[in-house]
Amino acid sequence: MSIAGGVDMAPARGASVGCRAMQVFVKNNNRWDGPPITPAQVTRFHSELAGAGIALNHVFAHTGYLINLASPKPDVLGKSRIAIEDELLRCGQLDIPGVVMHPGSPTGGDRDTGLRQVAAECAAVIDRTPGVTTRILFETTVGAGSHLGATFQDLHDLLVLTDRPDRTGICMDTCHIFAAGYDIRTAETYEATMKEFARVVGFKNLRAAHLNDSKHGLGTRKDRHEHIGQGHLGEEPFRLLLTDPRFAKIPMSLETEKDADLEDDRRNLATLYRLAGAEYPPP
Asked: How far apart are CA 177 and CA 228, in angstroms?
């Protein structure tokens, strides 16, 4: 949900489409810095969430897209280091339990060095923010170029190397795992993929999910989201996931294209509720 006008404006937008979970940015997602969140905004954010019927533990944030903790470039790494700490502090102000982050790209460097650098930076920023409980949630990626996070092994390694289990976790994106090569289109392939996730990463580490169809096919490494049921995934993977007990308590968010009146969100949510065998909008 957009935070135009302030992060405290997002819950009302969520309520307008019947959200029961929500993802937000905590500042402009394409800038390194942003204006501070005021105490009045924090109070309004919580009161608006309560009025919207959205539980705080169903809310999560997403870091800005400029952050790359795997970068070998000192200037980019330095700015990323400052930005991730700022985002954690903002999430701490709002009591948001998790912030989703792309693991980043070593841009020409090797995978192992990149993973170790991301883990070291995350461990350091966690140690610099002891009063914050927000978890850094490493997101599954399509793996374009040298981007980390396209394999479940990458995610496992990041969790182990960071070694801060109380402040880390995973966000699974349906479009991303599919474009990275994990098939979830049938009951058989879905179960095989989820068993692999359970074996390598563990569902105890899953803290959030993005529900997106894909404009491109299996293993294409192309990150283009499509409306639910209208892409290469189709409806079946979402029915399987929404009726999977392992996901029952995981907050989920759409990252599909929006129109000005949010009708796209309503249509996608209606499809998801239908696949879950539930009524939309929720009572």
From this structure: 15
Distance of alpha carbon 102 from its chain centroid, rounded? 8
Q: What is the pLDDT of residues 26-54, one digit of tens each?
A: 999 999 999 999 999 999 999 999 999 99
- pLDDT mean over 195-214: 98
pLDDT in the model for residue 283: 81
User: What tokens were used for 90?
Assistant: 């903002």
Cα distance between residue 172 and residue 142, in whole Å:
11
Domain boundaries, the chain: 7-276
Cα torsion angle, 59, 65, 71, 77, sign = negative
State how far the Cα of 231 lies from the Cα of 56, in Å rounded to an integer: 31
Q: Mark residue 95 as left, alpha or beta (left: phi above 0; alpha: psi -120 to 50; beta: remaining).
A: left
Hey, how many other C-beta atoms are within 10 angstroms of the C-beta on 187? 12
With bands split at pLDDT 50, 70 and 90, how would you rate the model's confidence at 9? very high
Distance, CA of 58 to chain centre: 12
Phi, psi of 98 (to 5 degrees): -150, 145
- CA nearest to 51, candidates 88, 8, 82, 1: 8
Sheet with 59-62, strands from edge to edge, namely 22-24, 59-62, 98-101, 135-139, 168-173, 206-211, 252-254
**Would you place residue 92 in the very low, low, confident or very high pLDDT band (cuts 50, 70, 90)?**
very high
CATH superfamily entry for domain 7-276: Divalent-metal-dependent TIM barrel enzymes (3.20.20.150)
Q: Please answer whether residues 194 and 47 qualify as being in contact, where contact means their C-beta atoms are separated by less than 8 angstroms.
A: no
pLDDT at 61: 98
pLDDT at position 109 over 90: no
Check pLDDT > 90 for residue 227. Answer: yes
Q: Distance between CA 33 and CA 36 in Å, rounded?
A: 9
